[in-house]
Automatic annotation (TrEMBL):
<feature type="transmembrane region" description="Helical">
    <location>
        <begin position="101"/>
        <end position="122"/>
    </location>
</feature>
<dbReference type="InterPro" id="IPR001694">
    <property type="entry name" value="NADH_UbQ_OxRdtase_su1/FPO"/>
</dbReference>
<feature type="transmembrane region" description="Helical">
    <location>
        <begin position="134"/>
        <end position="159"/>
    </location>
</feature>
<keyword id="KW-0560">Oxidoreductase</keyword>
<feature type="transmembrane region" description="Helical">
    <location>
        <begin position="251"/>
        <end position="269"/>
    </location>
</feature>
<keyword id="KW-0472">Membrane</keyword>
<feature type="transmembrane region" description="Helical">
    <location>
        <begin position="67"/>
        <end position="89"/>
    </location>
</feature>
<keyword id="KW-0812">Transmembrane</keyword>
<protein>
    <submittedName>
        <fullName>NADH-quinone oxidoreductase subunit H</fullName>
        <ecNumber>1.6.5.9</ecNumber>
    </submittedName>
</protein>
<dbReference type="GO" id="GO:0050136">
    <property type="term" value="F:NADH dehydrogenase (quinone) (non-electrogenic) activity"/>
</dbReference>
<feature type="transmembrane region" description="Helical">
    <location>
        <begin position="281"/>
        <end position="307"/>
    </location>
</feature>
<feature type="transmembrane region" description="Helical">
    <location>
        <begin position="171"/>
        <end position="194"/>
    </location>
</feature>
<feature type="transmembrane region" description="Helical">
    <location>
        <begin position="12"/>
        <end position="33"/>
    </location>
</feature>
<comment type="similarity">
    <text>Belongs to the complex I subunit 1 family.</text>
</comment>
<dbReference type="Pfam" id="PF00146">
    <property type="entry name" value="NADHdh"/>
</dbReference>
<keyword id="KW-1133">Transmembrane helix</keyword>
<feature type="transmembrane region" description="Helical">
    <location>
        <begin position="226"/>
        <end position="245"/>
    </location>
</feature>
């Protein structure tokens, strides 16, 4: 794979379309995994659920802050699109930022505010508790995730996502940075409010941040969760999986293939791991994940210094 080239900003439309397709793929995989009526019925789940929610009447609560509430819901899809804007598709990217890795981290932190607005704007006890749960969880995953993002950048000597991908021509970073890769994937699952880290939308609090959502508003938030998973999977490809590097197929095809495979793995985590309470995850995050990522970063730094 050669040097990454920035394309015309108009191609952000294609990036949005690809993100939508990936989100639908994630929803279809989730539907198949949770269906007892067979693969065909599972694949139709996203279609029927979308049609049901589009027809459903929008519900609201007394004295809700509708502007902030809907900003929190719609913002998730926008943040996911901003994340993939810096992800190379083979050798092409919409925004070749010098600080692309930092940009992704900033968008991830923006999710904090959006999920909190979902909890706050509804003016509902269950939604508010869900918002607080997410913030408590975010405090536990954010620092390990940040250091997991830094490790590939240190190895490549650049914060440009394209440079990180090009630097893996000989050996993918996932091979000698497994801890950073696993922590990154856990962070993606967590900021997507997914699987074991979906306590912010837990059934024990009536659905949490999703409790009062209905109709198109609920559909938008659910789509945002799948889009965030897809964006995280897409970003892992240039960061740890060699970008578009691979035999026979063109670079863009390898990027998409790797993204889809990782997305399927992330989606299937749901239902296979138990929900983790925020206070328990805080212990794991601060006592295990953070030290582990720091050791990984130290090893990467020593290798880079030794090689130079």
């Amino acid at each position: 794979m050669g040097e990454v080239v920035e394309v015309h900003p108009f191609w952000v439309v294609l990036a949005g379309a690809l993100l939508l397709v990936l989100a639908v793929v994630g929803a279809a995989v989730d539907g198949v995994a949770g269906s007892r009526a067979g693969v065909r019925a599972g694949l139709g789940v996203p279609v029927w659920e979308s049609a049901r929610l589009l027809r459903q009447r929008r519900r609201t609560t007394l004295a809700a802050d509708s502007l902030l509430w809907r900003l929190g819901g719609g913002g998730l899809v926008v943040v996911a699109l901003l994340m993939v804007a810096v992800v190379p598709l083979g050798r092409w990217t919409v925004a070749d930022l010098l600080v692309g890795v930092v940009w992704f981290n900033a968008m991830d932190v923006l999710v904090w505010a959006l999920v909190w607005l979902l909890g706050w704007g509804a003016n509902s006890a269950h939604s508010l508790v869900g918002g607080h749960r997410f913030l408590a969880q975010a405090l536990s995953y954010e620092l390990p995730l940040m250091f997991a993002l830094v490790a590939p950048a240190v190895a490549a000597g650049s914060l440009r996502v394209g440079d990180v991908a090009v630097a893996q021509q000989g050996l993918w970073y996932v091979v000698w940075m497994p801890v950073a890769f696993v922590v990154f994937c856990l962070g993606v699952i967590a900021f997507s409010v997914w699987g074991p880290f979906s306590v912010a939308a837990g059934a024990d609090i009536g659905g949490g941040v999703l409790a009062e959502l209905s109709g198109p508003d609920r559909l938008l938030v659910l789509a945002g969760r799948y889009a965030l998973l897809a964006a995280g999977a897409a970003f892992a490809v240039p960061l740890f999986l060699g970008g578009g590097a691979g035999p026979l197929l063109p670079g863009w095809a390898w990027s998409l293939l790797k993204t889809v495979v990782l997305l399927i793995v992330l989606v299937l985590v749901r239902g296979r791991l138990p929900a983790v309470r925020p206070e328990r995850f805080a212990e794991v995050g601060w006592l295990i994940l953070l030290p582990a990522t720091l050791v990984q970063l130290l090893i990467v730094s020593v290798v880079v210094i030794g090689a130079s």
